[in-house]
Every structure is written in C-alpha cells, then in structure tokens.
User: Which sequence fits this backbone?
C-alpha cells in the first residue's frame, strides 16, 4: 500500500495543483491522484485568464483580487522549487480592455465599471480616441471602452505543471493515469483515503478538485455536488505580427459569464499569446459532457471577433479547443469541507475563472485545513451553503 | 430514394469508391484537395511531353476511373476542395453529417465555402510519408520521398543532381526510379532494415510478389539500368551543409536501428530523400467520430464500415497497404455505401484481393518497421518540430523538468506540434520521444491523457471571413432514407 498522506488531492488541473503546492508548502504530506494527465481537462483548454474586470463587487471578486496578489509573486516564489530547464509561465500583467460598439452597450459598460471602482478595481474610462490609442486595430466604431490594468494572463498548462513540480520538490507525490473508484472509510461518515483502479491510498483528508467532473467524483466518494459542465470553444490563429496588446473583450462578456442561460452564448475575448498566435473566444453552452466540435459556436465567435478587430477577417484559424467549465448554479466556487462526509473537501466550481482563482483557492483551503487565519472570508464559498436534495443520504 | 454517397479523397481508394457507387446507381459527390484527381499516388504531368507516365503504376486504371467519374452525370467532382471539418448537425434531422469544405486555391483571396451532405460518407484521405528527424534534416535539399516523387512525376524535375534515397520500405524503389527517370544520378537506395529482415518479410509472400512482379520488375530494371545500388541496414544519420545539403553521414545500424560505432561514411550529395513509412491522415475520420483500433488506424468491418453509421473508410487510414489495397477497399466501400451488399457477386474480386493483400502487406510493413534505436542519432540541436523550431535538447529538458505524462501538456510546454502543420510532421515523433525518455531518463512512465496527435477538429486552416460566409449546400438535403434493409 502507498505511503499514508495527510492530504490527497484528486485532480491535477490548476486548482488541484495549487492546492497541492499550498499544502506541501505548509508542511503536509500530499498525494495528487489524476485520472489522465496534468491540465488535461478544463485547465488546458482555456486562455489563461486572470481577470478582475469581469466581476461585480462580491465574494468572487474578493477571491480574484487576493489571487491576483499571489499571481504577481508566484514566478519568483516557484523559482526556488523548480528544476532547471523548466519553461517560463508566460505570466503577463497585460491589462484588459473592454469594448462597447453601441451607445446602449457603452452606457451599461460604464455603469458596471462604476460599481467596480469602490470595490478596489482599477477601471479607467476611455473614449473613442483613448481606446484606439491602446488598441490601434480596434473597430473604429467603438463607442466606449474601459481599461482594466490589473487583468493578467498566464500559460495555464505551464502554470499547472509548475505548481505540481514545485509541490513534488516539497515532497508531494503525483500519480497519473489512475482513476478514483471509491472511498476508504473510517467509523461513521468519515473518509480515510481513496481507492483507485490500481491501489488504495490512505489519507487524513481528501480534496476533490476535478472541475466539471467533481460531481461524479463526489458521488463516488459518498457525497454530492451540483457542479455541471458548461462548454466553451476557443479558436487559435496561425502566427501573425503582434497587433493586439491587451485582453480585449466585448461588453457582452460580463453578461454571458453571469448568465444562467443553457443555450449558446458567445462574446468576444481576444488576445495575442507570447508565441504570436491569437486566441479568440468565447462561447458558453450547457450541453453535458459532449465534446464534439460545435461549428455553430465557432462561426458565431468568428463573426463577433471581426466586429471587434476587423483585420481578423483575413486571419486563419488553425486549431480549435473545446473545454468544459465547472458551472455552479449560484456562480460561486465551492471551497471548503463537505457537509456530509468528514475529511472530504471541495475545491471546484470556478467556472471560467479557475486559472485566476486557483492560487487563492489553494491558500484558502490550506488555511481551513490548518485552522489558521483565512486570507479571505471563507463563508461565501462553503459547500454547506448549497441546498442538498432529499435523495442524498448521509453515509453511515 | 436514390442514395447520395459523399467521398473525401480522389486517390486510388476514393476514385474506386466513387466508381463503384456510381455502378450501383448512387449519386456521388467527390471532394479532392488537389486541383486534379489522382491523390498522392497518381500525379499529372504538368507538361505531358516532359514526363513519362509509364512509371506510374496502374496509370490506365486511373485514367479509366477518372474519365468515368468525371463524365458521369450522377457524379459531382469538386477539386481544390479542402474539407476542414465534419459536423453532425444533430438537431437538423437532415443527413447525419455535413462535410465543410473550402473550394479554391488555398492561398487565393476567395474560396467558396460549401457544406456537403449525403446518405453515406466514405473517408479516403490517404497518408503522408513520415521522416524521422536527424541532425541537419531541416537543411534545404533534404526532402521526403513523397515530395521528391511528386516533383518528378508532376514537374519532371529532380530534387538534385547527386541524390541518395534513404529510409525504410518498398516506397524507396519508386522514388529512386522516378528520380532516375528525370535525370538525377541516384547514388544509392539505403534501406534501414537489415537484409535478413527484408528477405524474411518479402520472400514468403510469393502470391504478393507474383501480383506485384511486373511493378517490382519495372523498378528493378530501372535501378539496374541506372546502376543504382540497393543497400540494407544503413541510415542517414546526419546531413551536412550551411545553406543547403552538401553531404550526408551514413551509418550502419543494428536491428533496433541503433548506429554501430565506427561505421560512419561520408557521401557527397546535393539532395537526399528520406522516408520511413507513412502516417495515415486520420483527422477527418476522427472528426466524423470514427473509432480507431489499438494500432491507430480507423477500425472497419468487412464492408469498410466504421463505428459511425453510414460512414465508411478505405485505403491508408485503415492500414498502410498501398494503392492496390486501396483500390479494392474503395470499391467495397463504394458499393456498400450505395446500398449494395458485401456478398454481391460483383464485389468478389475486390473482397478476395483485399484479403490477400492486407495479410501480405502487413508482413512487408513489419519487415520495415521503425526500430526504437533511431533516437540515438539525435543531437541536442536537432530540430524536432520544424514549425516551432523546438530542438531535441529543449524538448528533452522540458519533458524531464515537467515530467509530464500527457501529450497535450507536452505540446503546450514544449510548443512541439503547435505550428501550422499541427504536428503532422513531428507529432508521432514527439509521442515516441516521450516513451523513449521515460525508459532512459526517468521521465513519465506513460502517456496518461489518452490524447493522440491525430485529433485535429479543424483539418485545414480556415479564415475568419470564410467561417462567417454562408456555405452553399451540395448533395442531398432530403431525409435519411431507409436503405438499411439491404445491408
């Protein structure tokens, strides 16, 4: 039987990796168990957004703001633990520019920015000329824009691998290609480890960080979580001369993020990468775990992208990513102890903000497990807030 | 109602499929990515007087099929058509699939976007030749056998004056013959497999040899007439030169393809054609939802049906077998897709031929299988991914540092396979290097994300303006017919 762990983290996406790193740094013996490979789910299929711009005041913004302070230092912090030859995280505090192309859009965009400022978000109002000064290739029909200099970007796969590698340096074990199939149980409703398809792993605590797959894993481990997949598609262009300097998105994006609509919603999120490609998103649709190519979404994304940056009409898409975001009905991540099973923890439900919120999530869950002061008020994220359906039985 | 059969690919498999479907009374839409039919295999001379089609195996069969498909009123042939995606249109209740294609010169300013629908789809996308990297392989003058042959067949141009053809497999022979035919001095055909491996793979296959005798005799005569030596157990382990290749190092290799120390010889060349077998073009089959077998080819039944209803696959994507197998498989797929049965009398020759050839070409393929020791001829500065310029040293140190176990994270941390060719050239190499590293440097013990390089939902680049253009619908738009009873 493998060594007993203080904490098992199920899932090696960015959230699982951040939890493993934070816990290892706090001195815990950690084992990460992943069914596939690092960042093989949601974390590897997004842009690597680290945003404060897309949230109004509230608990998620608070966690985003705390996480941003952690992202700012993370590269330096990890350097101590990473082996030589490790690729750079491509972290860049490039700032976001949110663009409205209609008068009505301009009005609601500026009003939204007005609510964010008292909460500590830097939101600089730009007129037509100001917007074009920051992004000269924007559609000249832009009516208003807001510059969010705190928005950042990271290469999410490298970031995930880096957090895992640092955790390993600090003593963590990482197990790939093993699927968790059940819980090891103590007396009463207590989890004492997990069973995989190959082995048994005893542990004092188990954290589920499986993104949209967390509902299934929670069920396997005797609990319940109302997280659902919300699909997204991202287009990648061939390399081109650098013409986009910030994260640029249309004012509809915020509406799409906070919407509960099950149907297809698209809004532009456009940015250049360090490699010279342009990433163009985004779409949201609740359609289960179906991952086949959603051409309708691809066409809609392309149409909207041309409205923001007309020069993209001649750009070529060479690759599309499809991914599933972990969607929570109340739009807040689930971070904290499971109300049914003692020793079981959740760290998921970040929807499209998992990269951004991962570092804060790792610190928060570490503080809850050690009983030390939390970096942010943990209550809004507590799993206990969720109304439990009658059908879930407390394991005896 | 009349069946509409959509065929992707106008090479041997696709043409035979179209021909057989027309024979069975179906309407056919045939998409070919090149400006003319023939695929990779049959190449039209740009100037008929300049080249000789006698070296093109089965040229007459091609001409007959191309003429028939091209002139049959039930057939719609669309050339210069890049099929870039396949969608399933679950909600629409029409035909089960829509092949999205862009028609026109890939670099041209305006391509027409079409959606092709039908009752059945036959995927006959062929293969491209694979070249293992070696130091200097990115120099001008180092080309794949396929590229050299295409130039020779279509343009009548030789890639160089003093040329070596190297790699593995029977394909090296026609490449050498094509080069000699257009005036190159081929100073040797270097086969990586040992004489023993080649002999034991080929000799027991007397029925195959008998079937292939005229073709092989043609190449042998050509090679002999042009005094081209065929040598075995040798590999090009380095290309030398600054602006272009000036010479190559050739090394004797053991049965695992590991260079034997002290055997290196230098050859003066101005071009080298290197091919180590073929990689099937799988992206459209994967996009259509077809299951692959453990051998990474599209899984098909005796009637060339894939795991997806009404979707068939023929030729190289179901197993590298060459044009004769492709012709037989295409004929079967076309006939059954058009509502025929595998037991129909007219299919008997094709069924028999496929059974025989598949078994025999399998043995030949095994005799030329890539040996794992080839990685030992790489140096740290050998480029692995030519699009992103990822070197072997960089790839290796990143994979060791991250210890990643997934192909996706490997690509996104090393950038190998992320460029314009989307891993068509380096993808399988990167996969093998991950496995190789695991065994030598304590890297990942396996690839655990189940991701393979061949998955490319967008099969060829498409512009934003093209994505937003209204696509013209080609083929049937009617309800699916109940032709299933016939099968």
Assistant:
């Amino acid at each position: 039987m493998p060594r007993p762990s203080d904490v098992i983290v199920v899932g090696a996406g960015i959230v699982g990796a951040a939890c493993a790193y934070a816990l290892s740094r706090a001195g815990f013996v950690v084992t990460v168990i992943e069914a596939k490979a690092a960042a093989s789910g949601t974390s590897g299929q997004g842009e690597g957004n680290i945003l404060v711009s897309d949230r109004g005041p509230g608990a998620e913004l608070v966690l985003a703001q705390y996480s941003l302070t952690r992202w700012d230092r993370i590269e330096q912090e990890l350097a101590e633990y990473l082996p030589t030859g490790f690729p750079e995280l491509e972290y860049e505090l490039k700032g976001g520019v949110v663009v409205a192309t209609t008068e009505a859009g301009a009005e609601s965009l500026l009003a939204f920015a007005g609510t964010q400022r008292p909460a500590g978000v830097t939101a600089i109002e730009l007129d037509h000329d100001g917007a074009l000064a920051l992004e000269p290739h924007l559609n000249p029909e832009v009516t208003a824009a807001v510059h969010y200099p705190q928005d950042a970007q990271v290469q999410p796969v490298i970031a995930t691998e880096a957090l895992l590698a640092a955790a390993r340096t600090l003593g963590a074990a990482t197990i790939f290609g093993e699927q968790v199939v059940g819980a090891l149980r103590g007396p009463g409703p207590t989890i004492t480890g997990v069973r995989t398809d190959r082995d048994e792993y005893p542990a004092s605590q188990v954290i589920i960080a499986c993104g949209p797959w967390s509902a299934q894993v929670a069920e396997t481990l005797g609990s319940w979580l109302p997280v659902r997949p919300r699909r997204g598609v991202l287009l990648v262009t061939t390399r081109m001369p650098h013409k986009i300097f910030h994260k640029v998105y249309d004012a509809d994006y915020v509406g799409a993020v906070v919407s509960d609509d099950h149907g297809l919603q698209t809004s532009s999120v456009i940015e250049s990468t360090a490699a010279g490609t342009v990433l163009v998103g985004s779409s949201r649709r609740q359609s289960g775990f179906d991952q086949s190519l959603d051409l309708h979404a691809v066409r809609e994304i392309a149409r909207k992208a041309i409205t923001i940056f007309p020069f993209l009409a001649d750009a070529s898409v060479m690759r599309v990513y499809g991914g599933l975001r972990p969607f929570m009905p109340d739009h807040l991540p689930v971070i904290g102890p499971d109300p049914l099973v003692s020793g079981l923890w959740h760290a998921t439900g970040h929807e499209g903000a998992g990269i951004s919120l991962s570092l804060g999530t790792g610190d928060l869950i570490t503080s809850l497990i050690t009983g030390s002061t939390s970096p942010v008020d943990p209550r809004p994220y507590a799993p206990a807030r969720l109304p439990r359906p009658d059908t879930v039985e407390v394991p005896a | 109602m009349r069946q509409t059969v959509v065929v992707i690919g106008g090479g041997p498999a696709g043409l035979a499929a179209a021909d057989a479907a027309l024979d069975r009374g179906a309407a056919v839409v045939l998409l070919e990515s090149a400006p003319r039919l023939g695929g990779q295999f049959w190449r039209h001379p740009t100037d008929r007087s300049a080249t000789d089609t006698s070296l093109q195996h089965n040229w007459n069969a091609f001409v007959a099929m191309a003429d028939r498909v091209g002139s049959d009123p039930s057939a719609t042939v669309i050339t210069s058509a890049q099929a870039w995606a396949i969608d399933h249109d679950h909600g629409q209740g029409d035909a089960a699939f829509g092949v999205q294609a862009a028609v026109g010169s890939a670099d041209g300013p305006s391509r027409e976007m079409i959606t092709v629908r039908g009752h059945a789809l036959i995927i006959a996308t062929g293969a491209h030749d694979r070249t293992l990297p070696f130091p200097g392989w990115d120099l001008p003058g180092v080309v794949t056998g396929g590229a050299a042959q295409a130039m020779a067949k279509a343009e009548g141009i030789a890639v160089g004056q003093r040329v070596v053809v190297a790699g593995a497999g029977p394909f090296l022979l026609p490449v050498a013959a094509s080069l000699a035919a257009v005036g190159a001095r081929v100073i040797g055909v270097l086969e990586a497999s040992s004489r023993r491996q080649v002999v034991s793979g080929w000799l027991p296959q007397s029925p195959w040899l008998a079937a292939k005798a005229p073709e092989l005799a043609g190449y042998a005569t050509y090679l002999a007439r042009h005094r081209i030596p065929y040598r075995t157990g040798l590999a090009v382990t380095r290309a030398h030169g600054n602006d272009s290749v000036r010479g190559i190092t050739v090394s004797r290799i053991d049965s695992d393809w590991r260079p034997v120390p002290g055997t290196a010889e230098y050859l003066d060349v101005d071009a080298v054609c290197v091919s180590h077998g073929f990689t099937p073009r799988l992206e459209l089959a994967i996009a259509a939802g077809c299951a692959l077998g453990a051998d990474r080819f599209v899984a098909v039944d005796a009637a060339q049906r894939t795991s997806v209803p009404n979707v068939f696959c023929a030729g190289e994507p179901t197993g590298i077998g060459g044009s004769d197998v492709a012709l037989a498989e295409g004929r079967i797929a076309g006939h059954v897709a058009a509502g025929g049965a595998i037991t129909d009398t007219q299919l008997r020759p094709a069924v028999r031929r496929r059974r025989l050839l598949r078994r025999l070409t399998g043995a030949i393929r095994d005799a030329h299988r890539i040996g794992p020791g080839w990685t030992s001829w790489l140096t740290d500065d050998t480029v692995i991914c030519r699009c992103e310029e990822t070197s072997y040293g960089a790839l290796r140190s990143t994979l060791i540092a991250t210890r990643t176990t997934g192909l996706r994270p490997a690509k996104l941390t090393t950038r190998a396979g992320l460029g314009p060719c989307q891993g068509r050239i380096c993808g399988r190499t990167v996969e093998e290097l991950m496995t190789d590293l695991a065994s030598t440097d304590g890297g990942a013990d396996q690839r655990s994300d189940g991701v393979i390089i061949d998955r490319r939902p967008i099969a060829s680049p498409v512009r934003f303006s093209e994505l937003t253009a209204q696509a013209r619908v080609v083929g049937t738009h009617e309800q699916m017919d109940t032709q299933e009873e016939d099968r």
The two ends of chain B are 16 Å apart (CA to CA). Residues 375-440 of chain B form one domain. The mean pLDDT of chain B is 89.
